[in-house]
Specification:
With about 260 residues, the protein is mainly alpha-helical. The protein is about 70% helix and about 0% strand.
Length: about 260
Amino acid sequence: MKTKVLFFLLLGLLTHLNAQSELTKNFDFKSTTCNFPDNQRARDIFPLGIELIQKNLYLGSAAEIMTEMITIDSAFCDAYYWAGYVFRKSNMNKEAVVMYYMADSLAQNKSLEYKQNLASISMLVGADKVARRKYEEIKKYFPSSAEGFYGVALTSTIIGDVDYGLENIHIAEEKYKEPNADTQLLKAILLTLNGKHAESLLYYEKVKNKLTKTDHYNGNYALSLYEVGTMNNDEKMLKLARKLYNKVKNKDELTEYIRSKLEKK
């Protein structure tokens, strides 16, 4: 039993991916991931490109600057990264994947942010195996970060290895400094997918005041309520399951199994 990409969870993850953009506030030529080109033209234009990105202005011009930087030095990974950033901001996700892939390859495992962005955007364009590989690399090269474990758990909702997803989300929970709704909801959904419905209810309850309007919350919570309610012959729980399911706006985003259980015959 699989579910489609949990886009709201993935987009929540993307909000944490721009730590490196903080460098733009105090940019200097020693703050780059790869060695800055020994070229005066590069020194003239790169700070301008960074400033445009920081201010979210003239992103087309920023992309041109990064393209020229790549022409000046094809091994300068930062130019690929920022080109990818611009493409992502412009909703050109396939182009962003190419640039992030080049940035990550050239960085030689030095940047957590490069791998995070590449993995997340890969999921958005359907390159799930690439995403899984990059999240596994985050676990390997940045083991203190929770993001690799969270990402692996997220990809398991697509790949279908739910037990492995649960193993990783447990670790992610421990590594995050504070509980967060995205992690708790992903764990709840993984428990639902794994048939651990009673246990999943505890996690749905933890996030009910934050994510009650999302389809994946309502649909998966409804399934677990339905299964537990049926087993216990609990009409109150079954009524709540039907109520939550009726709140789902896009039922096609849910699994066929959920729909088969809760659709009116």
